[in-house]
């Protein structure tokens, strides 16, 4: 019997296609402090920083919750701009503000979350990153009162797909793996991670997925309302 549904956040509950426009917003807002360099130069430095941090993240030398600030230290380094705490803070906080103003909830989520509450099925969010950022995003899209538990990687000290973070939220919610569903959009972090501890994983399909690359043995959805049928069948 399903007692809880746990969700990933970025790319699953909310859209995550705001970065490019967000960088243009940052550039325009902080152009004077950046020495009036052109946008392409700023963008190139940011891309270099992203690539370096992705590599370090894949090697487990940095965690996702460190990236939000570190990326701007590196960007200024590539731009040969002396490190300025005020500028780094502005770049970080302005991007977070832009994200909060830009994120949109995905189709069917509100219908699903209301159904779960009506059925007294617990809800959780499990996300890599900073707790405060995850909290602000959940609050902004108006679902804070629908979420029973929010766990982020900075709380646990490890990131998905590590078993520890999945087991951590199960312990907090006081449920067994077979009593839960996990919905995410990443085949490794979400699907592999949830499956490794015995949680039923469900992939939220997005534009980054290609049908010919998806494993055949996973459940795939494009609309959250599809989860209602899955729960009804599981709870018969």
General description of the model:
This protein is of the alpha/beta class and 236 residues long. It has two domains: 4-16 and 104-234, HAD superfamily/HAD-like (Rossmann fold, 3-Layer(aba) Sandwich); 19-102. Helix content is 50%, strand content 11%. A six-stranded parallel beta sheet has the order 3-2-1-4-5-6, with helices on both faces. Helix 9 (187-196) links the parallel strand 4 and strand 5. Helix 3 (64-78) packs across helix 4 and helix 4 packs parallel to helix 6. It is elongated and about 60 Å long. 27% of the residues are buried. The mean pLDDT is 92.
Please tag this protein with its features.
236 residues, alpha/beta, Rossmann fold, six-stranded parallel sheet, 50% helix, elongated
The general outline is elongated
Largest sheet: 6 strands, parallel
* Portion of residues within helices: 40-55%
**Number of domains as seen in the coordinates:** 2
In total, how many beta strands? 6
Summarize this structure briefly.
It contains 10 helices and 6 strands, in the order βαααααβαβααβαββα.
Topology diagram in text:
Elements: E1 4-7, H1 19-30, H2 39-58, H3 64-78, H4 85-102, H5 109-118, E2 122-127, H6 131-140, E3 149-152, H7 153-156, H8 163-173, E4 180-184, H9 187-196, E5 200-204, E6 219-221, H10 226-234
Parallel strand pairs: 1-2, 1-4, 2-3, 4-5, 5-6
């Amino acid at each position: 019997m399903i007692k809880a549904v746990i969700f990933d956040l970025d790319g699953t509950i909310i859209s995550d296609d705001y970065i490019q426009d967000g960088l243009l917003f940052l550039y325009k807002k902080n152009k004077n402090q950046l020495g009036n360099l052109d946008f392409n130069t700023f963008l190139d430095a940011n891309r270099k920083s992203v690539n370096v941090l992705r590599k370090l993240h894949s090697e487990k030398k940095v965690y996702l919750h460190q990236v939000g600030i570190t990326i701007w230290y590196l960007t200024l380094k590539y731009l040969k701009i002396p490190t300025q705490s005020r500028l780094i803070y502005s770049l970080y906080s302005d991007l977070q503000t832009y994200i909060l103003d830009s994120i949109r909830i995905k189709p069917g989520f509100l219908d699903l979350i209301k159904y779960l509450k009506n059925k007294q099925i617990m809800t959780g969010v499990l996300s890599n990153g900073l707790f405060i950022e995850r909290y602000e995003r959940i609050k902004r899209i108006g679902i804070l009162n629908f979420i029973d538990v929010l766990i982020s990687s900075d709380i646990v000290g490890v990131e998905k797909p590590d078993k520890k973070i999945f087991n951590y939220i199960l312990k907090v919610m006081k449920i067994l793996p077979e009593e839960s569903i996990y919905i995410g959009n990443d085949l490794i972090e979400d699907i592999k991670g949830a499956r490794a501890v015995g949680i039923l994983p469900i992939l939220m399909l997005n534009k980054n997925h290609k049908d010919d690359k998806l494993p055949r043995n996973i459940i795939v959805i494009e609309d959250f309302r599809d989860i209602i049928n899955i729960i009804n069948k599981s709870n018969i």
